[in-house]
Amino acid sequence: HKLVDLIAACPKTELHLHLEGSLEPAMVFALAERNGVILPYASVAELQAAYQFNNLQEFLDVYYAGMSVLLHEADFYDLTWAYLQRVHQDGVVHVEVFFDPQAHLERGIPLATQIHGIRRALEQGQAELGISFRLILSFLRHLSEESAFATLAQAEDFFPLIDGFGLDSSEKGHPPEKFARVFARCKELGFKITLHAGEEGPADYVWQALNLLHTDRIDHGNRSLEDPQLIQTLAERQMTLTVCPLSNLKLRVVQQMEQHPLIQMLDSGLKVTINSDDPAYFGGYMMDNYRALIEALPLTSEQLHQLARNAFTGSWLSPEEQQPHL
Ligand code: ES4
Ligand code: ZN
């Protein structure tokens, strides 16, 4: 398809990517072997067969089980390096990636092990692949405010290695307001913040993310479309939404790609970007997401370029750093 070639050749940035969600089944097995971890799956095929989800929670259960093979600095390095090599092929030149430290701290993996492994790969990606990066520490919203504050305290030694903070995991019943004080502190410390909101949770959670937590980006935001006033506010503020089409399909946020509201979002003036979320679990990386959209929706070349440009202007690169990509 001509439009696929067009967007493939276009420099792209990814703003919504969970590193642990880029853990491919083959690497789960390789790391299990290397680390002597016993898996409840006999083969790669058996593991892949478990990748059928009816909702966010069913996915998260498999996602947290999968990352149990990540034990050593080298594991976090290998994970991150594999992701960077993969998206380099897709024409991705800048990434802003999440990691979930609490999921590893709970298993006894020190923050230093996690961050040093991830950063070593990110710096190698910058040097050898020309991929610039930001690293985002994401709090798990199903855990307590106290746990988030304790994690923030532990992260203090690594503040120079972190660019911002995020909020992910089970959304329903865990509104942004639960973490208002945590993110106020993050902002006070001078960090950017970005919050998952309106994926499964209601439009009200997006309002909270905006007005209570003063978020710098909204991750997903699909359910904003249920509230015309919210659409208008997001459009007026040119708030970046990091939309994840294959994720939306796999987690049944949309029933078919043909029904994805991406074009409606663009037509409403929303600043939308395309991202892969958890590519190892949801069926593909950056270009797989664009390809699926192009096949299902009547997108124009102008809209595709707009999507790619939105990700750069919505990124945490300085205007000077964004300039060469625009
Ligand atoms: C996630 Cl798709 C999604 N939603 C919420 N939290 C997550 N963590 C990893 N992927
Ligand atoms: Zn996500």
Automatic annotation (TrEMBL):
<dbReference type="GO" id="GO:0016787">
    <property type="term" value="F:hydrolase activity"/>
</dbReference>
<dbReference type="InterPro" id="IPR032466">
    <property type="entry name" value="Metal_Hydrolase"/>
</dbReference>
<comment type="function">
    <text>Catalyzes the hydrolytic deamination of adenine to hypoxanthine. Plays an important role in the purine salvage pathway and in nitrogen catabolism.</text>
</comment>
<feature type="site" description="Important for catalytic activity">
    <location>
        <position position="220"/>
    </location>
</feature>
<protein>
    <recommendedName>
        <fullName>Adenine deaminase</fullName>
        <ecNumber>3.5.4.2</ecNumber>
    </recommendedName>
</protein>
<dbReference type="InterPro" id="IPR001365">
    <property type="entry name" value="A_deaminase_dom"/>
</dbReference>
<feature type="binding site">
    <location>
        <position position="278"/>
    </location>
    <ligand>
        <name>substrate</name>
    </ligand>
</feature>
<feature type="binding site">
    <location>
        <position position="18"/>
    </location>
    <ligand>
        <name>Zn(2+)</name>
    </ligand>
</feature>
<feature type="active site" description="Proton donor">
    <location>
        <position position="199"/>
    </location>
</feature>
<keyword id="KW-0546">Nucleotide metabolism</keyword>
<feature type="binding site">
    <location>
        <position position="16"/>
    </location>
    <ligand>
        <name>Zn(2+)</name>
    </ligand>
</feature>
<keyword id="KW-0479">Metal-binding</keyword>
<dbReference type="Pfam" id="PF00962">
    <property type="entry name" value="A_deaminase"/>
</dbReference>
<dbReference type="InterPro" id="IPR006330">
    <property type="entry name" value="Ado/ade_deaminase"/>
</dbReference>
<keyword id="KW-0378">Hydrolase</keyword>
<dbReference type="InterPro" id="IPR028892">
    <property type="entry name" value="ADE"/>
</dbReference>
<feature type="binding site">
    <location>
        <position position="277"/>
    </location>
    <ligand>
        <name>Zn(2+)</name>
    </ligand>
</feature>
<comment type="similarity">
    <text>Belongs to the metallo-dependent hydrolases superfamily. Adenosine and AMP deaminases family. Adenine deaminase type 2 subfamily.</text>
</comment>
<keyword id="KW-0862">Zinc</keyword>
<feature type="domain" description="Adenosine deaminase">
    <location>
        <begin position="11"/>
        <end position="326"/>
    </location>
</feature>
<feature type="binding site">
    <location>
        <position position="196"/>
    </location>
    <ligand>
        <name>Zn(2+)</name>
    </ligand>
</feature>
